[in-house]
Write a structure and sequence with these properties.
By secondary structure, this protein is mainly alpha-helical. It has three helices and no strands.
């Protein structure tokens, strides 16, 4: 049986507001190697960095 899968970016296409706990934001800002790939799709434009 084939499973339907959706990427995070696809799931968020129509989302205009998103609540995040602080942990994913910290993982993104610190570029934590264990979690960066998971949190990058939910960060604005996937490339804007705090402080850059």
């Amino acid at each position: 049986m084939e499973k339907d899968t959706m990427k995070v970016a696809e799931a968020l296409l129509e989302v205009t507001h998103l609540f995040l706990d602080t942990a994913p934001v910290i993982y993104y800002v610190e570029e934590n190697p264990l979690f960066l790939a998971s949190v990058t799709p939910i960060c604005p434009e996937n490339s804007r960095r705090v402080g850059s």
